[in-house]
From TrEMBL, chains A, C:
Belongs to the 3-oxoacid CoA-transferase subunit B family. InterPro entries: 3-oxoacid_CoA-transf_B, CoA_trans_fam_I, CoA_transf_AS, NagB/RpiA_transferase-like. Gene3D superfamilies: Glutaconate Coenzyme A-transferase. It comes from Siccirubricoccus deserti. GO terms for molecular function: CoA-transferase activity. Keywords: Transferase. This is 3-oxoacid CoA-transferase subunit B. The keyword Transferase applies.
From TrEMBL, chains B, D:
Keywords: Transferase. It comes from the Bacteria. NCBIfam families: pcaI_scoA_fam. This is 3-oxoacid CoA-transferase subunit A. It comes from Siccirubricoccus deserti. Pfam families: CoA_trans. GO terms for molecular function: CoA-transferase activity. The lineage of its organism: Bacteria, Pseudomonadati, Pseudomonadota, Alphaproteobacteria, Acetobacterales.
Length: 219, 232, 219, 232
């Protein structure tokens, strides 16, 4: 993961998750999407009461269960076995999405393919004609939560930008993202575009801009 | 005496017709009516439209094909309405090859459309999907400054439901996260068929704990279905 | 209540309720409206399992409680204290009306001011400009139940017809009524209009027609 | 630590503004947040729109005026949205005399509009009220051969809720038929304030029995409210 040219070390999946977890305060109701967002749960200290929501009707999800305490009837939105926090509750799927769509979540964190400077998000398909379509609950979450954060690699594996002036992939939702946690930086989506609020050590603003299609602004 | 228990799978499946829309509950394997799906495969109805959260898991060669994938493989499915279908799944391949069509729907819209059918709401507006491919061909309108699209109720001729415990009136409770689509699909099925892990006497489920009242249930079959399996 | 001119005895409130109760088979889910319909419950034998629904979220209502078994937290849609049958359950108000509006009730029985030969029902106001408006759940029930029966006096106290060609009062719902139980007869609403399926003893078809504005048909 | 309990009525009522729309749960006296209504009367907010199933009971001369009737009597209510208002009630008289307006709504439409607000559905079609006075001025459209009208979501700035038991996360259960409007108004309130008859430790309510999850609840006040009263 070392970017030897500039001497900085991009955050890995766990590093991005940990960085995002720092910014989630006690008392928030939060949905963590599939992938890196799911890892965020591991970085929220147990004593900080953050109530995790899962699309399949759980409020108050806990961490992965200890091996001898697995409950096959209790899975998260990725169908991984999970545990419950004290205070948890179950609802059915329509009520679960009433929570999402009714604006009751303080935050959802989603994975992303692309984010545009107007907050547009693309995270479910790379073209309009893909045979598989894996929308899941992303469109509902992107539209419904009070805040939408995205965690993703700052660029694609072959170095193309994901932080864009306009998304080129099919949208998940328009103008929904408020913040992006990438492997290189934390960016706020503002009326003037992307504002850089954090860069990993060893990387300059200019070096970050060079890896970004959209124009970046200083805080 | 009201008695919704049926004594055999044949009785449970009786009368499901070709061309039916079948609502299939569950999220992954949890709360999925797998025994009833086996029964439907056996029963023979074809030209089906299946409504199911996830239509296509990856299929490992050598594993037996079951459930939705098996119905698709048998050519019994005309269309799936789903929130999730993988290109590499049996269902995804059937769509790619033109043997089946797929309507892919945001998961919350799917749940709300099903609930709407059960609640007598023929159509509703939602911001989910506005400005995306999902909005194509749909009526659009702004509410409170947000673009919205019109979505239609999604009723089933048949709903297949998995309950934890049931009584002879068809009152149901669910275990933990197996609740998921089960209560709303029970509401939305013209003929709601339940597989239950346990049965109990009327009155054993308290009035305050019943999640799905028997009014939404037509038939209940007691099956020894075991615990849900993790995906391989 | 004796109609001395023709020697017949109109059914009273209890008589109408008993007559309607006879026609409700075991296994039906039924909502009984305020007034005479509520009395129907007293005429369904306890061993016949009819599941009574109440708008405020009860399925499986039982009769009025014995005096020492009253539960102040358990009332019917008229806010009278009731009991529960074994097998009863509670739902919230939106789910209760999902039951009504989603077509899940086999039957609702409503009181009426007027019923027209096309099945139109008027039962909530006598003019469009009344100060009070007491709709309650009647419009939902009239539209949503699989069958709508009406129980009412055959004529008003001053002898005006209630069984009409067209309703003159504001409608509760259009073309919703399938059967009417009056103090004098049982009438089915059919494509050709009202069909008489029962008349109280001592009253002829012609005498019934004389008390009815709409044209009556023999079975 | 999440702690939604407030220690005083003043704290419970803090910040309710003039001009608010207030959702008031209950069916008759059962499940009605009477203590919170007393608190609202004391708190002083005016120019209110009240959403309540029944706005006008008959008032017997000599009885103390309470709740909705008292707010109306004090001139603090601009409008009621309700399914039931008697001409001879205090609210009915205020409407007749032009001191207040009333929007009378079928009870099921009222419940569905409130639920829609909580679920993020801005508008929906329903057959209820089509072809009646209720349809006046509303968009009409046919679905499945049935005339329908368009109804709008009905959110509250404030929801006043009565629970049987609550924990510090705001998880709620209700006693018997007091459930009624409480869960859906809790969903639809921007600020949801709960009076609870009993409090319990977190975890004492099981995950399967909780009816209203705390996510819908902002403040919980423990009150000794006693049993519901029958109407006189």
């Amino acid at each position: 993961m070392n970017d030897t040219a500039s001497g900085h070390k991009p955050l890995g999946r766990s590093g991005m998750a940990a960085r995002a977890a720092r910014d989630i305060p006690e008392g928030w109701y939060v949905n963590l999407g599939i992938g890196v967002p799911t890892l965020i749960a591991n970085h929220i200290p147990p004593e900080r009461e953050v109530v995790l929501h899962s699309e399949n009707g759980i409020l108050g999800m806990g961490p992965a269960p200890e091996p001898h305490k697995e409950n096959p009837w209790l899975v998260n939105a990725s169908t991984q076995r999970v545990s419950l926090r004290t205070g948890a509750s179950f609802v059915h799927h329509a009520d679960s999405f009433a929570i999402v769509r009714g604006g009751h979540l303080d935050l959802c964190v989603l994975g992303g393919f692309q984010v545009a400077e107007n907050g547009d998000l693309a995270n479910w398909a790379q073209s309009a004609t893909e045979a598989g379509r894996q929308i899941g609950g992303a469109m509902d979450l992107a539209v419904g939560a009070k805040r939408v954060w995205v965690t993703m690699e700052h660029t694609t594996k072959d170095g193309r930008a994901r932080i864009l002036r306009r998304c080129t992939y099919p949208l998940t939702a328009a103008a929904c993202v408020s913040r992006v946690y990438t492997s290189l930086a934390v960016l706020d989506v503002t009326p003037k575009g992307f504002v850089v609020i954090d860069i990993i050590p060893g990387l300059s603003f200019e070096e970050l801009q060079a890896r970004t299609e959209a124009e970046l602004h200083r805080e | 005496m009201i008695d919704k228990f049926v004594r055999s799978m044949a009785e449970a499946m009786n009368g499901i017709r070709d061309g039916s829309t079948v609502l299939i509950a569950g999220f992954g394997d949890v709360g999925a009516p797998n025994a009833l799906l086996d029964g439907l495969i056996e029963q023979g109805a074809t030209d089906l439209t299946l409504v199911v959260n996830s239509a296509g898991r990856v299929h490992k060669p050598g594993d037996p094909t079951t459930g939705v994938a098996r119905l698709v493989e048998l050519g019994r499915v005309r269309k799936v309405i789903t929130s999730f279908i993988r290109a590499t799944s049996i269902a995804g391949e059937a769509v790619r090859d033109g043997r089946m069509t797929a309507e892919v729907v945001p998961q919350g819209t799917l749940a709300e459309r099903i609930r709407a059918a059960g609640a007598g709401v023929p159509a509703f507006f939602t911001p989910t999907g506005a400005g995306t491919l999902i909005a194509e061909g749909k009526e659009a309108r702004e509410y409170n400054g947000r673009p919205c699209i019109l979505e239609l109720a999604l009723p089933g001729d048949v709903a297949l439901v998995d309950a934890w415990m049931a009584d002879r009136w068809g009152n149901l409770v669910f275990r933990d996260s197996s609740r998921n689509f089960n209560p709303i699909m029970a509401m939305a099925g013209q003929l709601t068929i339940v597989q239950t892990h346990h049965i109990c006497d009327l009155g054993q489920l308290s009035a305050n704990e019943i999640v799905t009242p028997g009014i939404f249930v037509d038939r209940v079959l007691h099956v020894a279905a075991g615990d849900p399996q993790l995906p391989r």
